[in-house]
């Protein structure tokens, strides 16, 4: 069926602020869906309260509503569109995760869609009810003849106890209608059951839980499907969990395509997933089905089905190059698969199943260090804050690349001298998985634990364990040689298995540059292959590449053909984590678009499968590679750009600046010297002193003894922090010598050889920050924000108002003067963020960051101006600050709302201090300071302040 011409305008519901369990994969799917609908001439309205995303940018939709995701907001929008004479015809709620679906269901129950004559497209509400209500799902599966776990639903404590008695232990509790496994868990022993049942009943919004047999240790697989209105099905890809059942898929290492799935079992799963999707409703769209397989007898049971775009859809899209959300959006307005073209090839039909000739490995990224005292074991509740994806010609290459992308100060999987060697500690870790289990499997093989012990403790499929054991064997083999004596074929083999030069250098006891020079002389070089959805059967129009060393004499080609155009590389921000999230991806995307407008060929390097920057549609060329020196350097040598933009990708990209400069590669925008000066407290304070700008008294130390001596001069309380970190990592306020000594020792243990800064902490000061664009001479301040909480709470965790709400003209003038002086003194070219503390009408400078900051997207949305676009053109030298006609829309105030995921760590208090803990943010507009929301937040400003 061709497009339904009665749909002229669509409302897309977003997923709101980022929380653990619902991250920027929905920003990606929402953005893609909006672009897809607009290609069809459909007007798109969009509601989302997250200011940090590309999704809520005017480039994506005709109408963007930055409003709270609640029924009241939906009614306002529908009413407004009716009054404008442009009524909304349909709502697409499948692109915004659980948040969007729950809101659509609420509106449906309240009769909102019916009242305003709005159709729900892309989903079937009954299908959602069936899949979210654990009992309905179980009964539906039994009716379809699909195996499920033995169990049933409890709506009361008593009923739960009865069911547990029937099933016996171990068992699992799964609350209905929750996201990211919230409230769920395994119960091994009867004495733990009462507490777990209570938690589950409270976590479920409808206070019901499914109690069922435990399938812990079984294998877990996912299939990603698409179905159109005519009933055509395609399977986009199979995904296998490296971790067995018992760990939430969001916390599991996953591999695509499935590696250990025999074809007979795969065909059976295909048939079951099609039967399941058909059985729950006849809607057109995407669907994710999860299965569990008993490794003893290959019994298959269905775990769950998500009749919407899910976290896995973003991964499947990036893994195969097949744009699931884009095609699902077109099917939602009536198209069938055979009527659409595959956007990657531009010539073949979208009604085909992607074929891939490489391996994808996704590894999650955790942030447990932000939550001292948290339970670090992995289970049914998702705890990771982001993820990285590696693409390679074999599992080992892809796994090493994913590990190199994590940015946890490792060079890949092992071969870096950071192994755990204590056998008992390793056994304990393997039996109780945490974020480092993957590294500990490698360490266990190295420490001599038997294969059988490792397999019994982890229940991980033998094939995966053999792959890791083989890497450990390879390490041992390489250690027998020096750089001079290592056989050429062994060096090539190591590169083909994903080892970076730094790992090989560690094993051969030589310099990284020695390994680089040796392989260069032997012609062992990376070649770039295309992600094309069709195993190179047809030519791809979308330039989306990964590197490999697996070129053979028969297939030497480098599929990434370079041009003679002037080009620029934009470095992405890698995996999401607390302190560096989606707002940097927003800046990268705008940087790419601005460079395109300025006549450059744009090259994006990033490894985060959830984000818009890694959508092959954004840059002229996408390299899905780790933002890790060796990978970045090889791409630059291949492409020969005019320079590299580092100031948009957070600390990840900034960390590359020194090495790029050392290798003679031009940094576009603010130079490395200026970036370094801002980070070096001594130099920066000298700059402030020369410009008569006040700053808190401080000193730099490298030992605990020196810290105690310095504290006598500065006086307590003191703010203690390491250099070169983002998100306030390891920052703490100390009030006496014992605390000071303890914290300095901890920092030096975590980050050896680091300069530690001690600042006299200004108690009861007000904090403010300014963002500006500078071209080296002219400065334009894009916004000054005032924090509601007192100084001492990290800027990312504070509520903040734009513009300021109670600072005197005298203070604002000081802030503006200092911002201009510092921007020019640092020779900033591009963006800069400066943080201030105000005490007794005197403004002190806390720090300056000559880069895109977390607050830039917020100011862009609040003032409705594309500041990152302007700043990028300034960086490229295409424009001066004075060339722009700035017209910010200033009306009332915009409040930045920090959003936390403390509910994932029930035993951790919500204490806020200098180290950032929020996972996302919302935006809320108010007309004046009498607003109830503002008054409530203001009254609680001291509530969570800790050290």
What's the gist of this structure?
The protein is α+β, with helices and mostly antiparallel strands and about 950 residues long. The protein has a 7-stranded antiparallel beta sheet with strand order 14-13-10-11-12-15-16, with helices on both faces.
Describe this structure in words.
With 947 residues, the chain is α+β, with helices and mostly antiparallel strands. The protein is 35% helix and 20% strand. It contains 31 helices and 33 strands. It has a seven-stranded antiparallel beta sheet with strand order 14-13-10-11-12-15-16, sandwiched between helices. Helix 14 (437-446) crosses helix 16. It starts with 8 loop residues before the first strand and ends in an 8-residue tail after the last helix.
Low-pLDDT ranges:
none
Mean residue pLDDT? 92
Instruction: Please tally the β strands and state the result.
Output: 33
Quote the distance from N terminus to C terminus.
61 Å
Content-based structural category:
alpha+beta
Largest sheet: 7 strands, antiparallel
Helical run tally: 31
What proportion of the residues is helical, as a percent range? 25-40%
Query: Numbering strands along the chain, what is their spatial order in the largest sheet?
Result: 14-13-10-11-12-15-16
Residue share in β-strands: 15-25%
Using the alpha-carbon principal axes, give the shape.
Answer: globular
Rg, rounded, reads 27 Å
SSE layout and pairings?
Elements (H helix, E strand, L loop, with lengths): L8 E5 L11 H15 L3 E5 L15 E3 L5 H13 L6 E3 L4 H13 L2 H4 L3 E2 L4 H8 L1 H11 L6 E4 L2 H11 L3 E5 L9 E3 L5 H11 L5 E5 L5 E9 L5 E9 L12 E3 L6 H18 L4 E9 L6 E7 L4 H10 L3 H9 L26 E7 L20 E7 L2 H10 L18 H9 L5 H10 L4 H8 L3 H18 L8 H9 L4 H8 L3 H10 L5 E4 L13 E5 L18 E5 L10 H16 L3 E6 L14 E4 L4 H11 L3 E3 L4 H5 L2 H6 L9 H8 L1 H10 L7 E4 L2 H11 L3 E5 L9 E3 L2 H14 L5 E5 L5 E10 L3 E12 L9 E3 L6 H17 L3 E11 L2 E8 L6 H8 L3 H9 L17 E7 L20 E7 L5 H8 L8
Parallel strand pairs: 1-2, 1-4, 2-3, 4-5, 18-21, 19-20, 19-22, 20-21
Antiparallel strand pairs: 6-9, 7-8, 7-9, 10-11, 10-13, 11-12, 12-15, 13-14, 15-16, 17-18, 23-26, 24-25, 24-26, 27-28, 27-30, 28-29, 29-32, 30-31, 32-33
Helix pairs in contact: 1-10, 1-11, 5-6, 13-14, 14-16, 18-19, 20-30, 26-27
